[in-house]
């Protein structure tokens, strides 16, 4: 079956797939918890969190600078991944601005859970006659 050039180009131009739910949920929960620890440590109910609370309290008491710097580094990595997603969109022929924005936002919030889908995408090429 030969696909018309306009159909092949259009499919690639608007390509977007949502990230898998489990890796996305893990990313959001981890970044959310670290944000809570770094930005509002006084509101954390350490005893109610069991072993996680004890570990968090230890990290806050002994490695606060590492937590703080790691939190901001994680967000910088997400920004870098998002910018790389934009580069990949252009490289892979995704030219629709809405699709590019969706890739940027999804990668910003979910990181590698989203970026891995874009990296694995192989656009279909038109058969030459």
What does the model show?
The chain is mainly α and 129 residues long. The chain has one domain (28-120). The chain is 71% helix and 0% strand. The protein is built from 6 helices and no strands. Helix 2 (21-39) packs antiparallel against helix 4 (64-91), helix 4 packs antiparallel against helix 5 and helix 4 (64-91) packs parallel to helix 6. The protein is elongated. The two termini are 13 Å apart. Mean pLDDT is 89; it is low at 1-8.
Keywords for this structure?
single chain, 0% strand, disordered N terminus, 129 residues, mainly alpha
Q: Distance N terminus to C terminus?
A: 13 Å
Write the H/E string, N to C: HHHHHH
Give the number of domains: 1
Helix content: over 70%
**Shape category:** elongated
Protein name: Transmembrane protein 254
Membrane topology: Multi-pass membrane protein
InterPro entries: TMEM254
Keywords: Membrane, Transmembrane, Transmembrane helix
Give the helices and strands, then pairings.
Blueprint: H1 5-13, H2 21-39, H3 51-62, H4 64-91, H5 97-110, H6 112-120
Helix pairs in contact: 2-4, 4-5, 4-6, 5-6
Quick synopsis:
Helix content is 71%, strand content 0%.
